[in-house]
Amino acid sequence: MSRFSCYHFSIITFLSFVLVVFLHGVTAATFTFVNKCDYTVWPGILANPGSPTLESTGFELRNGGSRSFQAPTGWAGRFWGRTGCSFDDSGHGSCTTGDCDSGEIECNGAGATPPATLAEFTLGSGSQDFYDVSLVDGYNLPMIVEGNGGSGECATTGCMTDLNKKCPSELKFDGGDACKSACDAFGNPEYCCSGAYSSPTACKPSIYSEVFKSACPKSYSYAFDDATSTFTCTGADYTITFCPNSPSLKSSKDPAAESTGESGPDTDSVQAAALASQWLANLATADSTRTQLYSPAQFGFSVIIFLFL
């Protein structure tokens, strides 16, 4: 091979390497959905305006199944689970709870019809991610969010309680398959934090939001429930689990127990032991394994070094 050919080959190899690193670097986080329910769940995905659509906007997740998606840096959006769905061979149909009214398995840019348990994310661009589980639009199934491999508090959040069993009769949806929010059920401004009640000082917890908060203390129970309901983590991947039957021992750094809504010393002691183990396991967890953006400055520096060589 001639000297020119070797030089040409080296340039192509170098540029190919840089391209691979650059394309890989735009991945901010991996979201993994896990279904521990004893029935099939159809997760829905909605990207916020300005955020790109992920690989899917809705899919089937059978009992015991999992599926992962990669999201770019700065991505923001929400996830939820649809239940009681019926789709034909062409993928057309509807769901009993959480339906996005697209008439298809894919939600195609449509959000969840309340009531639905929501997981909401805003991924940072080299900074903190913000995430929460919200019952502001009501509740349809248990869900938790766990951060894996991140730095910071990275607490597990969500609702492990079957709130449908505790739902006040006036909030029950479709015979008890889900639980409405007071806003959705009654439409009053004081429940919706709207109109004269559209500020944190004016809109306070209601007797109905307190039911949600008591059962699920780490979840949003009404619009201004920020202080105890928003969580942060830097450089993590996230697992969204439907119907979690016990706390995961993977990644939460929060030693506080998540209320399950169940009573009795046996349940409490089991949860406390599991969460203590979870906290200890995280002392050895490394910082983020997710890749960061390969910046233009880094690219330029690499090219300069290469040319000098």
UniProtKB/TrEMBL annotation:
Taxonomy, superkingdom: Eukaryota
Keyword entries, A-Z: Disulfide bond, Signal
PROSITE patterns with a match to the protein in the record: THAUMATIN_1, THAUMATIN_2
Disulfide bond residue pairs: C37-C243, C85-C95, C100-C107, C154-C233, C159-C216, C167-C179, C183-C192, C193-C203
Signal peptide range in chain numbering: 1-28
Keyword Transmembrane helix: no
Family annotation (Gene3D superfamilies): Thaumatin
Protein name: Thaumatin-like protein 1
Organism this protein belongs to: Gossypium raimondii (Peruvian cotton)
